Amino acid sequence: MNDLSAETVQRVWIVTLAIYGVVVLVVVVLLTLIVREARRITGGVAAIWTVGQKIANNTIHIALLDTTNHVAARILESAKGVVGATAAIQGHAEECPGCPACVLGPGWSR
Prior knowledge:
This protein has helices at 6-95, 101-104. The radius of gyration is 45 Å and the shape is rod-shaped. It has one domain (6-104). Helix content is 85%, strand content 0%. The chain contains two helices and no strands. By secondary structure, the protein is mostly helical.
C-alpha cells in the first residue's frame, strides 16, 4: 500500500468538506424554493376556499327564492280576488241608487 502524506489526507478532507458544503447549500436552496412554493400554493388554496364559501353563501338563497316565488304566487291570487271583489262593489255601487246606505244597513249580502 501507498503511504499517504498528511498533506494529501488534509487535501482530501478539504475537498470532501467543500463538496459537502456545496451539497448542503444546494439542498438549502431547493428546500427554500419548496417552502416558498408551498406557501404560494397555500395562498391560492385559501383564495379558492374563500371564493367557494362566497358561492355557497350566494347559492343557499336559491332555495329561499323558491319559497318567495310560491308566496308571490299566493299574493297574486289574493290580489286577483281583491280586484274581483272591488269590481263587484263598484258594479253594485253603480247600479244601486241607495249606496252606500244599503251596504251599511242590515241584511246586505252579495
